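Wed. Picked up where I left off yesterday with LppX_LprAFG lipoprotein. The coffee machine is broken again, so keeping this brief.
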Amino acid sequence: MRRTAAPLLALALLAVPALSGCGGDDAGDTESAADLLAQAKQTLDEADSAHFVLTSEGAPETGTALVGGEGDIARPAAFEGTLQVLAMGSTLDLAVVSVDGTVYAQLPFTSGFSEVDPAQFGFGDPGELIDADTGISQLLSSAESAELGRSAGWTARWSAR
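Structure written out below (tokens, as returned):
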């Protein structure tokens, strides 16, 4: 899967509080960052679907990059949502649908969906984000020296179903 690694790593790391925040009480929790990452990975890998909201601060102002979005991902490989993409100096809202490895987007000034290569917009196939073998949860298990703390820049909210 082709994707920009930095935003997705940030997304994965910021998904931890939302995923792990579904249980337990905040006052007595003494789990380590590694424990929370493992719980988040397991939750995401076991979910049939997930809804996410992604926002960013301090994102690039030039080039092509994914800077935000919201959508629903379902197993085995489906996505429907809107992604905000920086392209040609402007932020575009692209309606995106992905089914079994084929990505469609409603491009600006068009009335229908066209098959696209998502790499041209700075992201990979969003339908693969919750694939247990290749998706975002792999970033959760590969984190090194994880620490608890506040995040800055990227924020994400996931709800696994």
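Quick read: Confidence is low (pLDDT under 50) at residues 1-28.
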